Amino acid sequence: MASIASSSSTLSTGLLLRSPTLQLGRRRIRITPNSVRIIPTRSCLDDTSSLLKAAQYTVDTYVKSGMVVGLGSGHASGMAIQHLGRQLHRGNLKDIVGIPTSVASASEAAKAGIPLITYQGSSQIDFAFDDADGVEEGTFVTIIGRRKLQSEESIIQEKSILNAANKLAFIIEESQYKGGLEGSIPVLIQSLNWLAIAEEIDDMFLGDAEVWRRASIGQVGPLGGDFPLVTREGHNVLDVIFTSPISSLAEVAKILDKLDGVVDHGVISKIPCTVVIASPNGFNVLEKLTADIVG
User: Fold this and answer.
1) Fewer Cβ atoms within 10 Å of its own Cβ: the N or the C terminal residue of the chain?
2) CA 116 to each of CA 80, 105, 109: distance values in angstroms, whole numbers, following the listed order
3) How far is residue 81's CA from residue 246's CA, in Å, rounded to a whole number?
4) Contact predicate 125/68, CB 8 Å
5) Reduced to 3 states, what is the DSSP secondary structure of residue 23?
6) Alpha-carbon distance 12 to 85, whole Å?
7) CB-based burial of residue 18 (10 Å sphere; 0-12 exposed, 13-18 middle, 19+ buried)?
8) Is the model more confident about 205 or about 21?
9) Which of these, 194, 208, 200, lies nearest to 251 by C-alpha position?
10) 268 by DSSP, 3-state: which?
11) pLDDT per position as a tens digit, 60-72
12) Are 74 and 130 in contact (CB under 8 A)?
C-alpha cells in the first residue's frame, strides 16, 4: 500500500539476544531482534488436528484455578472453551468464571458448564483467548471482526474484553500470521450520515481499498443491500476491503481513529500478547512482551 507507510522501529524490549528464523510449514519467518520470544513446543502429528492441540495448549498453559477468563469467538476459541469445560468437570481447574465475547461463545460456554458473568467496564480479567482474522508478523497487531455478526453481537465488547485482559492469546492457523496482511478491516461508524463517513474513508484509502456497508441478510453490495447490519449499539459496519497488502496495520488504525463518525474498528494492538500458531507440523508459540517504540 503506497499511501500507508510504516515508520516503526523496534528497540531492545524482549528476551531474545539474536534474530532467529522461525520455520512455519514451508515459510521461514524472520523475528525482529529482542522483541519476540519463541516458546519451544513439541510436534503434534497425530489423529487430532493441530488447531485443537493449539487450543488445548492455550488453556492448559495459561488458565489457572480462580481466574476470570475472557472467552473468545470462532472455531479455535470454541475448541478451547470445550476443553476448559472438561478441565473444570474433571477437577483439574476450579473456581473459573468466564466472560464471553459474543452470543456464540456464551452459548458454547454454557454447554461446557463454565460459570459466566457479564462484562462490565470495570471487570478484572486475568486471561483471555480469541480467534483472529490475521496477526501482523512481528508487531502482533491483529484484525478481528470479519466474521458475520448477529445484531446482538458487538465488536466493541469483544475488543474491550481483550484489551481489559491482563494476558491475551490468539489461537490461529499458520496462514493468518504474516506481514502484509490482506482482506478487510471492519469499521464501526455512526449510522446517521453513514454514507458521507464511508465516502471519507474511501477517499483516505483511495486506490488501496473498497468500502462496503455490511448487510445483515440478503444480497451483499456496496450499500449494504436492503437490510444493512445495525449493531446492538446502533452502528453500521463498513468492511474496508484492501486490494493490496497492508504495510502497517498500526498506521491504518491511526487514520481510522482520527476520522469523525468512526466509533471503533477491528484492529487491536495489545501487549503483552501470545500467538499460538497451528501448522501442519504441529504448533508454535510466540510471545511479545513489550510494545514497539514508534518515532
Assistant:
1) C
2) 15, 11, 8
3) 32
4) yes
5) strand
6) 39
7) exposed
8) 205
9) 208
10) strand
11) 999 999 999 999 9
12) yes
Does residue 261 contact residue 195 with C-beta atoms inside 8 Å?
no
pLDDT digits (tens, 9 = 90+) for 207-262: 899 999 999 887 677 888 888 989 989 999 999 999 999 999 999 999 999 999 99
Return the C-alpha cell found at 215.
448487510
For cell 491483529, name the residue: 142
Query: How many other CB atoms are found less than 10 A from the CB of residue 42?
Result: 9
* C-alpha cell of residue 18: 539474536
Residues 221, 219: Cα–Cα separation, whole Å: 6
* Rounded Cα gap, residues 288 and 295, in angstroms: 19
Burial 78-110, CB ≥16 within 10 A → b, else e:
bbbbbbbbebbeeeebeebebbbbbbbbbebbe
